[in-house]
Design the sequence.
């Protein structure tokens, strides 16, 4: 038993570290998605093969992808490490990799942005408290300028050419997969990784930089569609809608709308976590969807974020609607068929199937028992005993709760929706408590209660160990919301 617990703890630690690294990569892109969408729309509309070719307006495409987007990434990366000063030096040094290469420097910006912010942060720490009064602004400005200038020269001579070579190597690898019809096999890795909440890291941290460079060359890229295809998730939710049981079945129709139209893919992750065999369904849907995309020559002009069908339509180039819809539909059908077979052949009392119902029964038992400690322990049943004890020790009474934070990986999709659901429940119960959403790496220090998906709870506790942490499976319809509301009434 001890060995098993150690192995689980070790695997969980590795997963958390991977998620943190992925969050850092995607965290440099996610805040700037609007700029990527603007570039994608301008590209789709005004390039020679676009919907409304206009030569003068098409001149915006090159400078935006060459300068604007990498500079935004570099600034954001530096800001993540050292605030505004880190952002400024991140943008300065990013110019070095831009000028030092002949391709869009998204990967280069992701490297030098946070790196330069870290270097400046170390300098500021070293001189903190040692600057004579009246010279603070002089030292701050000249240190940023001198260090930024030196790092820019290094980025121009070293990092730029190195990253260009790496990008060319990755592009050649992708092209090899395309030429040998092997690209669909990538979904065997992507789909399980998404369920571990690495979707943003994969899409925005790895695929999008390479895809943007390809889109700049040929006007579209299939790589934008590998992770973001809404078909596999839609198939899972439709199968639960028709063949599921209990709360999973009743919540599936709403989840379909949120996933397919709203583009929040995290909504279907708990349905797979309840029955891990369904990972085979999303893998099958992802592989066949990508195969269809590749066979018909599909591609998007920019990243469809969020992964909504509306975003897919907006980013589809002229003449590309049939391949796009075909890939989404094929992925949905295959995922649905496999998931339906797995659900129908499950034992009737399968604990994965009835997980939501059992959780609701446990909540009713906790209410009747009326013990706060029991509530905390049950709510956090999914995490390790040491963490559960820590969480139980921080359970808050009503008088101590002023802010509840719902956190997800990126702080935009599931957290915003979960916060909205919880906020409405509290308002209906007459409870006046602030409910906000946040990225798990940016949970505010004044949060009294933090609600997260159970796979993100360890990271949330590391960010704010003093708050009470509630771990949930289904952020759309979790019985733990009602338990929390009852406790705070």
Sequence:
């Amino acid at each position: 038993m001890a060995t098993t617990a150690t192995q689980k703890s070790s695997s969980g630690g590795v997963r958390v570290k991977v998620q943190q690294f992925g969050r850092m990569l995607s965290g440099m892109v996610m805040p700037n998605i609007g700029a990527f969408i603007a570039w994608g729309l301008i590209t789709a509309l005004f390039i020679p093969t676009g919907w409304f070719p206009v030569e003068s307006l098409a001149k915006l495409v090159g400078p935006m992808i060459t300068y604007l987007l990498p500079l935004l990434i570099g600034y954001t990366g530096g800001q993540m490490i050292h605030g505004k000063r880190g952002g400024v030096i991140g943008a300065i040094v990013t110019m070095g990799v831009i000028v030092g290469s002949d391709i869009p420097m998204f990967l280069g910006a992701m490297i030098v942005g946070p790196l330069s912010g870290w270097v400046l942060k170390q300098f500021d720490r070293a001189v903190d408290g040692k600057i004579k009064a009246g010279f603070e602004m002089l030292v701050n400005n000249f240190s940023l300028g001198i260090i930024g200038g030196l790092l820019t020269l290094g980025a121009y001579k070293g990092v730029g050419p190195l990253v260009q070579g790496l990008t060319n190597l990755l592009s050649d690898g992708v092209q090899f997969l395309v030429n040998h019809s092997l690209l669909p096999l990538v979904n065997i890795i992507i789909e399980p990784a998404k369920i571990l909440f690495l979707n943003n890291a994969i899409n925005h941290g790895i695929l999008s930089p390479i895809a943007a460079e390809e889109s700049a060359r040929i006007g579209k890229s299939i790589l934008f569609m590998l992770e973001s295809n809404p078909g596999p998730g839609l198939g899972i939710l439709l199968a639960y809608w028709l063949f599921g049981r209990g709360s999973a079945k009743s919540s599936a129709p709403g989840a379909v709308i949120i996933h397919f139209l709203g583009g929040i893919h995290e909504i279907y992750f708990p349905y797979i976590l309840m029955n891990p065999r369904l990972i085979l369904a999303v893998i099958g849907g992802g592989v066949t969807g990508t195969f269809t995309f590749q066979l018909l020559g599909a591609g998007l002009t920019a990243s469809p974020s969020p992964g909504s069908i509306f975003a897919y339509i907006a980013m589809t180039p002229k003449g590309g609607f049939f391949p796009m819809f075909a890939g989404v539909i094929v992925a949905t059908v295959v995922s649905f068929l496999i998931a339906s077979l797995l659900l129908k052949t499950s034992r009737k009392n399968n604990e994965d199937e009835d997980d939501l119902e059992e959780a609701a029964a446990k909540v009713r038992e906790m209410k009747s028992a009326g013990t706060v400690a029991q509530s905390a322990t049950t709510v956090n049943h999914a995490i390790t005993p040491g963490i559960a004890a820590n969480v139980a020790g921080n359970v808050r009474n009503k008088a101590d709760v002023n802010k509840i934070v719902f956190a997800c990986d990126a702080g935009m999709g599931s957290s915003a929706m979960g916060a909205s659901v919880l906020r409405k429940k509290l308002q209906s119960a007459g409870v006046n408590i602030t409910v906000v959403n946040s990225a798990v790496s940016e949970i505010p220090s004044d949060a009294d209660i933090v609600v997260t998906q159970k796979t993100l709870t360890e990271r949330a506790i590391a960010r704010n160990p003093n708050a009470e942490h509630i771990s949930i499976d289904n952020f759309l319809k979790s019985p733990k919301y009602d338990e929390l509301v009852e406790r705070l009434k």
